Each structure stands twice: as structure tokens, then as C-alpha cells.
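Whiteboard transcription, Tuesday session. T.W. wrote the C-alpha cells on the left side:
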């Protein structure tokens, strides 16, 4: 081959390259493809975590799914399920996709779809087919799949909102020829079976039933309630008791008691105007501590006025609010599945919480409180700071039989901060001026 032939070949190759390159530039200019403003399917992928997690970690601090399912919205769950359709089919006889089909998934044995290849982590979680996809397992799994089942191939980051998860589960329940029954509402104080020691956010009467309990929590001041043996408050201790009459005891039981008529006259003489000697917290404002038999003595005028200014409407002494409302707002997210606060707040699983600090116990319009809390309100009429503190430490310990299934907050700082956040809203839901 001479040089002339070689030049022709090289020229042909270069010409072809120029034609193809120029054609691609022309085509790109004529048929440009813009990225869509919003993807058709957005699949959130969880960030890998070192060491994975545990079922208890994923289940911590969630309200019981049994409570949320009572008012779950199937239509809303169907809408949210669209996020899952890129990887799962839900129709009867539907194919497996990236993940297994979900027809009949509620109460189906874990890792039991025969023609799907499960990850080693999911097979281990299945416990050789002994474990089923109960409401609790689905609820905690779709919150954070990789935390709840370490090693699963499911890359979905999860749904953090408890009510959204309950709505999705309510929809999944319908994907069945014979939908399994809904779980009954949780028994008083009962947490989800798989929640381990981690509790759930506010469940039922969280705010309306914020009464302190008769049990004193460690590190929490005991509620100052009228009992057979009166508790002396700081203001009461400072008040002199010039006319206090000691109740008869074994030491003075041989001393004659005053006649009933004289006793009644003494009570009326010593009781403040408009007061009731036998009244509970509502009748003790400005009065010094009564002896065991309950004869209340008025405190000096100056001290009475000072004491009254530090007490809520119900007459029980109010402790200072020391928490951080901003930090309390973050902690309150645990309660939002069951309670609302702010302008336009309405009752949910639990009552709305506007003006809860200083509010009457078990008295929120339109909300049906448990009989246990209503009975408790007879002797603990006002949500004081101390009572809220004890309530948030453990509602069931304070008021056995309450509908509030939240196990309580373990951190005293969290409790103080939540109370400060609640106190920042007035009864109308408007933030109070700092």
C-alpha cells in the first residue's frame, strides 16, 4: 500500500469521526432533555450505621400501635404506600419486585414467600419461620428497617411518624381476603409487646391526666395534697398558727374534747370568709397547715397574700418553672402522636394541652377521661408543676387505671423542659409573652 492509499484511509476515518461528533452535538441541541422537577418515585435510602441496631432500639419511645390503629386512616395509608410500590406489589397474585409482594403480609410468617430470596439478616430475624409479621413488628420495622432487622437488604430509610406508620399498616391489613382483626386497645399501662423496655410517646390522656400520683417518684417532690395527715408547704411552715388546736392522739386521748357545738363554732370563727374548713386543695388557699382533725387556721394577712400569689386557681402551691421551652419542644415530639398544642389544637388520642399548667385535672371540653383520672381529680384538682412532674415520670404509677399508656420520661431535665414548653401556651393556644 502506497502513501496515497494510506492517506485516503486515514482521511475517511477522521471524516467519519467528525460527522458522528457533529451529529451528536446537533441532536443534543435539537432534542435536549431536562431533568424532571420532581421524580416520579423518591426512594429514601438509610445511611449505613456501624454495628446495626436492635429491635428494642427501633421500638423505643413509640406510642403503642394498638392505640394508633383504633383511629388509623386507610386512605391516607394507601397514599403513603405509593412510596413502597417501586419495590413491592400489593395486589393479589402480584409479583415480587425488589422486595417480596405484600398481599396478606399482616400475620404472615417472616421470610416466607417461597420464590423470593431473603437476606441473611431477615432469615435470622424470622427465627426459622416462628416469627410473624404482627402489627408490632411491622410498625417498628418500617420505622427504621436496618435498625430493627440488622443485615436486611431493605434500603428504605423508614417512616418516622408513628401515625403515618399506623395508617400504612391499616392499609396493608386490607390486602387480604380475610383481614385479620385489629388488636384491642392496649390495657392500662401496657406497652407494645416488642417495645422492650423502651416506652412509647404519649398515648392517651397524656396531658389531661397530668396529675401527680400518690406514689412519690425518686428525685421528684411529693405532691402536696390534702390527706388525713396534712403536708406542710413552705409557705405554711412559715405561717404562725396562733389558734391551731391539736388533734387528740394517744398522748392526749384522756383530755376532754370540746362539745360538737363549740367545735363547729370554732371552725366557723377560724375559717376565712367564704372558705370551707373541710375543702380540699381548692379551700386551703392562704391557710396554714391544719392538724390531723382538719381545723384550718388562717395565716396572717401579709403571708396569706404572698402565698395566694404563688398558687394557681385551685389553691395548690405552684413550684417554679425552670426548664427550657425550646428544648422541651423537641422532647414534646414524642407526645405529638397523641396530643396537640397551640392555636387550633384539638383532642386526639389524648386531650389537647393548651393551658395545661394550672388547669383543672380531667377537665378538657369534648374529651372523655378515664374514671381513674376523674376519681383522682377529686383529691388532686389542679395540674400543678409538681403534679405534672410526677405524672410525666410515670402516669400509671401515679394514677393506676389511667388510659395514658406512656411509660414516662426518665430524664428530669426532659421533664422540666416539657413542662416549660407546655407552660408557654395559654388556654387559647397562643404563646404567652416571655
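and on the right, the sequence the group agreed on:
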Amino acid at each position: 500500500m502506497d502513501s496515497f492509499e494510506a492517506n485516503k484511509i486515514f482521511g475517511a476515518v477522521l471524516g467519519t469521526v467528525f460527522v458522528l461528533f457533529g451529529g451528536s452535538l446537533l441532536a443534543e441541541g435539537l432534542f435536549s432533555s431536562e431533568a424532571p422537577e420532581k421524580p416520579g418515585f423518591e426512594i429514601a435510602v438509610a445511611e449505613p450505621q456501624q454495628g446495626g441496631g436492635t429491635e428494642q432500639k427501633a421500638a423505643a419511645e413509640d406510642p403503642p400501635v394498638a392505640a394508633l390503629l383504633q383511629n388509623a386512616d386507610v386512605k391516607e395509608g394507601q397514599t403513603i404506600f405509593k412510596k413502597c410500590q417501586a419495590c413491592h406489589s400489593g395486589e393479589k397474585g402480584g409479583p415480587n419486585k425488589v422486595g417480596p409482594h405484600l398481599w396478606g403480609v399482616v400475620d404472615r410468617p417472616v421470610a416466607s414467600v417461597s420464590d423470593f430470596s431473603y437476606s441473611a439478616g431477615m432469615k435470622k430475624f424470622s427465627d426459622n419461620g416462628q416469627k410473624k409479621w404482627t402489627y408490632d413488628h411491622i410498625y417498628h420495622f418500617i420505622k427504621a428497617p436496618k435498625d430493627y432487622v440488622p443485615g436486611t437488604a431493605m434500603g428504605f430509610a423508614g417512616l418516622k411518624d408513628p401515625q403515618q406508620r399506623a395508617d400504612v399498616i391499616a392499609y396493608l391489613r386490607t390486602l387480604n381476603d380475610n383481614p385479620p382483626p385489629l388488636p384491642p386497645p392496649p390495657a392500662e399501662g401496657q406497652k407494645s409487646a416488642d417495645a422492650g423496655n423502651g416506652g412509647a410517646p404519649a398515648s392517651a390522656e397524656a396531658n389531661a391526666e397530668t396529675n401527680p400520683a400518690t406514689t412519690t417518684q425518686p428525685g421528684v417532690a411529693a405532691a402536696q395534697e390534702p390527706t388525713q395527715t396534712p403536708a406542710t408547704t413552705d409557705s405554711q411552715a412559715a405561717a404562725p398558727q396562733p389558734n391551731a388546736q391539736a388533734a387528740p392522739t394517744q398522748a392526749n386521748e384522756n383530755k376532754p374534747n370540746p362539745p360538737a357545738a363549740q367545735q363547729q363554732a370554732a371552725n366557723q370563727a377560724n375559717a376565712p370568709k367564704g372558705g370551707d374548713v373541710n375543702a380540699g386543695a381548692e379551700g386551703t388557699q392562704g391557710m396554714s397547715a391544719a392538724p390531723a382533725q382538719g381545723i384550718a387556721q388562717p395565716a396572717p394577712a401579709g403571708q396569706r397574700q404572698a402565698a395566694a400569689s404563688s398558687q394557681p386557681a385551685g389553691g395548690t402551691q405552684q413550684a417554679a418553672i425552670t426548664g427550657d421551652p425550646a428544648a422541651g419542644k423537641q422532647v414534646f415530639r414524642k407526645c405529638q402522636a397523641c396530643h396537640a398544642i397551640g392555636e387550633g389544637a384539638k383532642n386526639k388520642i389524648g386531650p389537647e394541652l393548651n393551658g395545661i399548667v394550672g388547669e383543672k385535672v380531667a377537665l378538657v371540653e369534648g374529651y372523655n377521661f378515664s374514671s381513674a383520672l376523674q376519681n383522682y381529680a377529686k383529691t388532686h384538682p389542679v395540674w400543678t408543676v409538681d403534679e405534672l412532674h410526677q405524672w410525666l415520670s410515670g402516669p400509671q404509677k401515679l394514677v393506676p387505671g389511667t388510659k395514658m399508656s406512656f411509660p414516662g420520661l426518665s430524664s428530669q431535665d426532659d421533664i422540666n423542659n416539657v413542662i416549660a414548653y407546655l407552660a408557654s401556651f395559654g388556654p387559647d393556644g397562643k404563646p404567652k409573652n416571655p
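Someone added at the bottom: Residues 55-174 form a domain with the Cytochrome Bc1 Complex; Chain D, domain 2 fold (CATH 1.10.760.10).
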